[in-house]
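Demo today. Your pick:
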Amino acid sequence: MSARIIIAAVVSLTAALTNTSWACDPCGLHNAVQVPGVINSMRATGLQPGAVTLGAQQQVSTFNVRGENDLRTTNTDLELIKSLSVTQLSLGYNLSSSFATQINTPFIVRNYDRFERFRKVNDTESGIGDISLLGTYSPYSYTDVDSRFFVAAQSGIKLPTGDTGSLKRVASEDQTTADQRIQGRGLTLGTGSVDLPIGIVSYGRLGRFVGFGTAQYTVRGEGAADYRFASDLVWSVAPGYLFLIGEDESLSLSLLVSGENKGDDRLNGARLSKTSSNNTYVGGELFYAVSTKGSFQLALEVPVSLNVGGAAVEPELRARIGAGWSF
């Protein structure tokens, strides 16, 4: 395989992803595309048949609230998200050099201000989120001394294991009141729906230059209390440079661009106008691989373009640390 083919493949994927500029943390709670484990293993060394992979990731996101004083005077029952902490644990198994399976389990902590009778009270909700089961298939990979390339497809199912108490509270109101209350916040620990994620992952290296990209579209089913989250597309692309490269370890620094596009959720069939998102994040990522076993990831992103459908809550900052190990 020639170097030109490798570069063209990476550049083509990068262009395809960056032509769509989207991101949203509250809806990203229920996506598995970033979970380390099988993908980090492929990124570091490729799939090793028979290997068991473990992954752990912690992502913390903070939010900004626009016009909080105005909201306090017009709402007697309102929640405004301040931060989200999502811890994802994964367990995978490589059936062959081309196919692997993985189960992802998230633990979510929502920190928010609750307004009751015009008084602000800080509150926290935590628990297990929606567990997802994924299969990864890599139809093509190539490796030589100076280059490496792979492309993989992912698909699976997300199960309604997370708590949906917040959805039930919203569903008890009429559409207009519910739309005003939501304000784009991380509404719930679980969607209450069975969802179908479909994605693609690609990686290329030529000498010390690397490129990594992911895209995942999730088809959402009907959730709890007649609430339906909109289907969404999440993506990330990370062109970078290997500052350390060797048989036993490598270290790359990448420019990270990521996002998500999500339409309006629905309650009893009616659109909720403050639940859509069309935002873009930019940041940096460090990716370290040691031996043929371990990988570590550190990323920091800030939004550079925001469109949250008129909601008061806007993403502010997110930081992510992850690790994967193969046995």
Remarks:
- Residues 3-18 form the longest helix (16 residues).
- The two ends are 30 Å apart (CA to CA).
- Confidence is low (pLDDT under 50) at residues 1-30.
